[in-house]
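From the methods appendix. Each design record in this collection lists the tokenized structure first, followed by the designed amino acid sequence. Records were kept in a plain field format so they could be parsed without special tools. The example shown here is representative of the layout used throughout.

RECORD:
FOLD TOKENS (339 positions):
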């Protein structure tokens, strides 16, 4: 395992992040404690140190399992990321949302479940369209100054909100968001319109969730296997099937599994990207780790880009039109004047 810096920080994290949403057996699926421990052991033995969880995963069981695991090992070896926002109990109207009250309460509860004094990376889990971004950033900065959190990050939030937040944080001397967690895969490339360019501008690392599109990119649904994706899901439509078939073709060409190709693609997009690969079995983790040894050549990347291409919308597509040269102001303005 190689290590990368997380965003504009000195924090060293493994090039693959272990997703732990499946730690726990609530809702009839997932890994029990013994299996979860074995998965984390295998990840650490491979050099992995970056763990991703959240206060609501498996009703808090994911954090509890990780806490029991870390209590018996070197806590400082691991970089532990968790999240706040989503409702984790029904005790009060502020048991959810981005507000400071929920943030502070949620973090204290997470620290108890995780059996630790500090969280390495705290994500805002999802934007609530209610709380002012300055309230969020000041709260996160206070937690960092208290030593309960080391770094701030954000997930599932519009690009303009994140951009405003990091600009405000820089102006005020507060801690900035160093990582951006969004759904990103060959089947879900819409973050390329605004979110990923924004992350590149601010030097944020992108940590994609569902880089295998819920297993669709492994090809198992084309083989008729059952899973947790609903039949009407966009991950299983005609376009997604076409993308998956191309992934399988390249995997066959390389003599690897389709999952290796899909994960490798996310890591070869020209920006800092650490995919979050979940596992509920040790064998799944071991397969995902093999993606680190896969390098796609220019032709393979082009085939994958073409089959999964999306419309950037305005102004992205406008910038790409014939005759519009962003590096030639004269040509650009000539085109605008003609309109």
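DESIGN:
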């Amino acid at each position: 395992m190689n290590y990368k810096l997380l965003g504009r920080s000195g924090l060293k994290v493994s090039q693959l992040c272990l997703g732990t949403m499946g730690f726990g057996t609530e809702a009839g699926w997932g890994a029990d404690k013994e299996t979860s421990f074995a998965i984390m052991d295998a990840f650490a033995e491979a050099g992995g140190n970056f763990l991703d969880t959240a206060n609501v995963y498996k009703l808090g069981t994911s954090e509890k399992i990780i806490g029991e695991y870390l209590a018996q090992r070197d806590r400082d070896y691991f970089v532990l990321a968790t999240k706040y926002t989503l409702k984790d109990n029904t005790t009060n109207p502020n048991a959810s949302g981005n507000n400071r009250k929920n943030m502070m309460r949620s973090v204290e509860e997470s620290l108890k479940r995780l059996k630790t004094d500090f969280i390495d990376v705290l994500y805002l889990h999802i934007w609530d369209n209610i709380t002012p971004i300055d309230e969020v950033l000041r709260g996160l900065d206070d937690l960092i100054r208290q030593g309960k959190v080391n770094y701030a990050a954000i997930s599932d939030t519009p690009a303009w909100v994140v951009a405003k937040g990091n600009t405000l944080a820089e102006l005020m001397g507060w801690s900035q968001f160093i990582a951006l967690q969004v759904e990103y895969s060959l089947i879900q490339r819409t973050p390329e319109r605004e979110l990923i360019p924004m992350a590149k501008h601010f030097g944020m690392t992108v940590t994609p969730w569902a880089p295998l599109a819920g297993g669709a990119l492994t090809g198992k649904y084309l083989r008729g296997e059952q899973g947790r994706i609903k039949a009407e899901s966009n991950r299983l439509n005609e376009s997604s099937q076409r993308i998956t078939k191309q992934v399988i073709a390249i995997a066959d060409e390389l003599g690897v599994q389709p999952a290796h190709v899909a994960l490798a693609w996310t890591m070869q997009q020209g920006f800092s990207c650490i995919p979050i690969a979940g596992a509920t079995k040790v064998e799944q983790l071991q397969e995902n780790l093999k993606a680190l040894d896969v390098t796609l050549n220019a032709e393979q990347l082009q085939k994958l880009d073409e089959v999964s291409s999306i419309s950037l919308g305005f102004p992205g597509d406008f910038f790409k039109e014939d005759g519009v040269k962003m590096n030639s102001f004269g040509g650009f303005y000539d085109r605008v004047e003609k309109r």
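APPENDIX NOTE: Residues 3-309 form a domain with the TIM Barrel fold (CATH 3.20.20.100).
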